């Protein structure tokens, strides 16, 4: 069991580390979009797509960078208390709180899958079977949801990024849970 836990931890941490290191440069994409927005509004005809594309870039940056942030331990903690605790007490508190986070991310992932299915034109109540049907050819994409803005982009790409980010965050939280259990058993990670 311990061998599998270490393998899972190494695998998830490696994937989220690589994705996080790549996505952290997404801030420059966001800056480029906002600079273009300022330039186009000042010297040319204002672009319709810049504000919404900046929002999409920020969502991608935030949601795909979240697992890396959790891995580094740079998420917000109450350091007034937490910083003075022993490693064992920190592991117990982290273990309990990460269980709540895993439950929350599970609910969030279920909602994201349903929302993405809706954006692809599925209006039923079984979004997972819809995606299974898309893979097997039993289902087809319907009328795709678009944003209500003047630019009107499809929403399924950003919702798919959200599914990926929430899934990666869920995997990172499970990795952190396993690390806490191993720490409580006296192992160093």
Could you explain the architecture of this structure?
It is a single chain. The protein has 189 residues and is an all-alpha fold. The protein has one domain (2-184). 74% of the residues lie in helices and 0% in strands. The protein has seven helices and no strands. It has helices at residues 2-23, 26-43, 50-72, 79-82, 87-119, 127-136, 156-184. α1 packs antiparallel against α3 and α5 packs antiparallel against α7 (156-184). The protein is globular, with a radius of gyration of 20 Å. It starts with a helix and ends in a 5-residue tail after the last helix. The model has no long low-confidence stretch (mean pLDDT 91).
Note the topology.
Layout: H1 2-23, H2 26-43, H3 50-72, H4 79-82, H5 87-119, H6 127-136, H7 156-184
Helix pairs in contact: 1-3, 1-7, 2-3, 3-7, 5-6, 5-7
Domain Tripartite ATP-independent periplasmic transporters DctQ component: 30-181
Protein name: TRAP transporter small permease protein
Membrane topology: Multi-pass membrane protein
What order do the helices and strands follow? HHHHHHH
- The CA-CA distance between the termini, in Å, is 15 Å
Note the overall shape: globular
Overall average residue pLDDT: 91
Structural class comes to mainly alpha
The amount of helix comes to over 70%
**Quaternary state of the chains:** single chain
Overall structural domain count: 1
Largest sheet: none
**How much of the sequence is in beta strands?**
under 5%
Number of helices: 7
> What would you report as the Rg, rounded to the nearest angstrom?
20 Å
User: Are there runs of 5+ residues with pLDDT below 50, and where?
Assistant: none
How many beta strands in the DSSP annotation?
0
């Amino acid at each position: 069991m311990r061998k599998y836990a270490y393998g899972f931890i190494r695998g998830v941490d490696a994937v989220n580390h690589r994705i996080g290191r790549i996505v952290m440069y997404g801030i420059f994409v966001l800056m480029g979009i906002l600079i273009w927005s300022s330039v186009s509004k000042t010297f040319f005809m204002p672009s319709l797509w810049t504000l919404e594309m900046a929002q999409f870039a920020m969502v991608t940056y935030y949601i795909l960078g979240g697992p890396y942030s959790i891995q580094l331990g740079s998420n917000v903690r109450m350091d007034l208390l937490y910083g003075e605790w022993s490693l064992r007490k920190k592991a117990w508190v982290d273990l309990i709180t990460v269980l709540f986070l895993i439950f929350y991310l599970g609910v969030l992932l279920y909602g994201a899958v349903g929302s993405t299915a809706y954006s692809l034109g599925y209006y039923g109540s079984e979004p997972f079977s819809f995606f299974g049907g898309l893979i097997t050819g039993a289902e087809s994409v319907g009328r795709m949801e678009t944003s209500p803005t003047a630019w009107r982009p499809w929403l399924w790409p950003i919702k798919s990024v959200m599914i990926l980010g929430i899934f990666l965050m869920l995997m990172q939280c499970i990795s952190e849970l396993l690390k806490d259990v191993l720490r409580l058993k006296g192992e160093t990670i």
